[in-house]
Design a protein that fits this description.
It contains 16 helices and 35 strands. The chain has about 700 residues and is of the alpha+beta class.
């Protein structure tokens, strides 16, 4: 009888002796291989089994039957350095995947892993006990990418803007792009980890040295949708034409509030006016407050192409130089917008307050309104400060209500974060002219308090019904404990009870640091310790606002969750029949999707501001700036520039002529010879030495190295 092929004999023998590992020569004797030619075939087959990883390999080249492997699936998140992490259901920690083991996976892909043997002592590579290798791509998350087109002889490739895409993409078809253009490229194939992804240029955004092109390409690289499908744009035009002007039948069925003095208060450059306010004093010292919100639900019909696109976006994106609206401009800045001296459809939340600002009752009605005045925040502030204006009485009454509400909110335990915002001044071409802290006005707080009032009133009205809440869980115990230790280095105290903090204690800390140089970095540390607010059908309350029930109702032009809330309200008040079909894919999935899209928008907004901050820093290479050490690592010192509100790094190699040790317990670098110390919270003066706009990184040099 002919012998079985060597490969099959090896696998069968190893399977029957699975408890042992063999050196190849030892295994050949076990198989009775004595002929030189047969031995050469044997060694070749064993090498192939090792190459294809069909056997386990141990130290010294010993091979063993391959144990059944775990091959879980999960989404991979790849870092700019090429390694990644995969969140796997049922695993207590993310699976670490080294750069050499990512295969052809791209950031966001659904991958199948092979899990390496676990070290029960917890001493895995890089300190991780669970490590794996990508063995299959289940689903490609990315069908396209945004980047810079580069020519290399006759070849062309695109360098992705998203640094999580660590592979350049080879261009396979003819195109009209020029060297240095920002482009959108498809990802058509990626077959071998030693090769490159391949694709076709789908869109030329523009030259990379155009400031506006840089912002747009950055946003698109992070997943922001820019262009509207033709069907959605056409539907928006049709709906605007149907309801502008408002049909008589629609006017007749709504409460008419056009005679009530009404005002909108928004930023100088605002085009979409979601909300307007009216305030009427009552004889008992209380107030009747109307918060009028654009009735977007009357324009965006469920199940249409327009609704599908609004849902896909889920939010408007406020970039540093423009707004990318959730709805086409004909609606967002036109028929839906509560523009002055034009009749508009609204959903009005009316709240009765007593003389202390406590809610007596509230209701929501479909209405028609006519905004009398459009004010900017600066104009409203001038009125609050005593300036003369036709609507001065209304604005000052609203300010009185806002102060009452603010006092009650603080007494309730709402956390009073007040991080400075960055104001970026651009020229007409989008180039940065200045970066400075944005002034915080009482007029901002006025609108915020009245919107909070309307949102919590609506959440209360929808109590115990299927609903989408805006929730904020209590902070993670471990993160809060780290913050308590961190602020202790500055001489401040955050008392904890089993790792938990009462909001009043957090407020006490925020009050204690007010006006100090360390205020921005301590506030940032506290915010990072907080859970992220999100949308959910499960009401866990809102920790930051100290509310049992809260939602988003006041911005349906720019937030899809608010549109869902409007649809649910319309069903509750009988304005439309009960359908249960208020959001694609159901409320729970819609809440999750909207939370994810919100995070994408926030990332894009922050990245666009950071880009301009770095561009501004690039104009000031060689200039000195005051700053505060915001973080310390073994690689160097992170310094937040007080004027630009942006962070840069002083590399440890650039700190004098001493050798520095990193003390993790005190977040400090200490010179071994001089004893000089650089710790978190120290005020320093630095020089900008490099500003990389592609990586959005700033390198700094200390001007004063005395240390302490």
């Amino acid at each position: 009888m002919a012998k079985k092929p060597t490969r099959e004999r090896v696998l069968n023998y190893l399977a029957n002796h699975a408890h042992r590992a063999y050196r190849p020569k030892e295994l050949s004797k076990k198989l009775g291989i004595t002929d030189n030619d047969e031995y050469r075939r044997f060694r070749s087959d064993v090498a192939a089994l090792v190459e294809r990883r069909e056997v386990d390999v141990h130290r010294g080249g010993r091979i063993q039957h391959k144990r059944p492997s775990q091959t879980p699936t999960g989404r991979i998140s790849i870092t700019r350095k090429g390694f990644g992490f995969v969140a796997v259901e049922g695993f207590t920690e993310d699976v670490y995947v080294s750069a050499s083991n990512t295969g052809t996976a791209l950031d966001g892909d659904l991958v199948r892993l092979e899990i390496f043997a676990r070290d029960r002592r917890g001493g895995g590579r890089r300190g991780r006990s669970v490590e794996g290798e990508v063995v299959d791509i289940v689903d490609r998350a990315r069908k396209e990418a945004v980047g810079t087109f580069r020519e290399h002889g006759r070849l062309g490739f695109v360098v992705p803007d998203d640094q999580r895409l660590t592979r350049d993409i080879y261009v396979t078809a003819k195109h009209d792009a020029s060297n240095g253009d920002k482009v959108v490229i498809s990802i058509d194939a990626f077959e071998h980890h030693r090769g490159a992804p391949e694709g076709r240029i789908l869109k030329i955004i523009g030259p990379q040295d155009d400031p506006r092109v840089r912002v747009e390409s950055l946003a698109m690289s992070l997943g922001v949708r820019v262009d509207y499908p033709e069907a959605a744009a056409a539907e928006a035009e049709r709906r605007a034409a149907i309801i502008d002007p408002i049909p008589d039948a629609e006017l007749a069925r709504r409460v008419d509030l056009r005679v009530i003095p009404t005002v909108t208060i928004d930023p100088d450059d605002a085009k979409d006016f979601d909300d307007a306010i009216s305030v009427e004093p009552q004889a008992n010292g209380g107030y009747l407050v109307h918060v009028h919100v654009a009735d977007v639900g009357s324009f965006v019909q469920r199940g249409t192409a327009l609704d599908d696109e609004a849902y896909a976006r889920a939010t408007s994106v406020y970039l540093v130089d423009r707004v990318i609206p959730m709805l086409p401009h004909v609606l967002s800045a036109g028929s839906c917008s509560l523009r002055p001296r034009e009749d508009r459809l609204a959903m009005t939340c009316t709240v009765v307050l007593d003389d202390r600002g406590r809610v007596v009752s509230s209701e929501v009605r479909e209405s028609v309104i006519r905004s009398d005045y459009r004010l900017t925040y600066n104009e409203a502030q001038a009125i609050i400060d005593g300036g003369d204006h036709e609507c001065a009485t209304l604005v000052r009454q609203a300010a009185d209500v806002s102060r009452l509400l603010s006092k009650l909110r603080v007494e309730r335990g709402s956390i009073e974060f007040d991080l400075p915002e960055v104001q970026v001044v651009l020229d007409e071409e989008g180039a940065v002219q200045d970066v400075r802290p944005r002034e915080r006005l009482e007029a901002h707080r006025l609108i915020e308090e009245l919107m909070l009032l309307a949102n919590r009133s609506v959440a209360t009205l929808m109590h115990r019904q299927p609903f989408v809440y805006r929730v904020h869980a209590a902070p993670d115990v471990d993160k809060l404990s780290q913050v308590a230790r961190y602020v202790g280095l500055f001489g401040y105290d955050l008392p904890l009870d089993e790792g938990r903090a009462d909001p009043s204690q957090i407020n006490a800390l925020l009050h204690a640091i007010r006006g100090s140089a360390q205020e921005p970095i301590i506030q940032s540390a506290l915010l990072r310790a907080m859970s992220k607010a999100e949308y959910s059908t499960s009401n866990v309350g809102h920790y930051g606002l100290a509310l049992k029930e809260y939602t988003h109702f006041t911005s349906p032009i720019r937030r899809y969750p608010d549109l869902i809330v409007h649809r649910l309200l319309k069903e509750k008040i009988g304005a439309v029949p009960q359908s249960g079909d208020v959001a694609p894919h159901g409320l729970a999935d819609a809440a999750k999707h909207c939370s994810e899209r919100e995070r994408t928008a926030v990332d894009a907004e922050r990245a666009s501001v950071k880009l301009k901050q770095v561009e501004y820093a690039r104009q000031h290479v060689g200039d000195e700036f005051a700053g505060v050490i915001s973080g310390v690592s073994q690689f160097g010192i992170f310094v937040q520039l007080s004027e630009l509100l942006v962070e840069g790094m002083v590399h440890v190699r650039d700190i004098g002529d001493d050798y520095y040790d990193y003390d993790e317990s005190t977040y400090s670098l200490v010179g071994t010879r001089t004893g000089k110390e650089f710790r978190v919270g120290m005020e320093v003066t630095v020089i900008i030495v490099r500003a990389d706009t592609e990586a959005r990184e700033i390198d700094l040099f200390l001007t004063d190295e005395d240390g302490k």
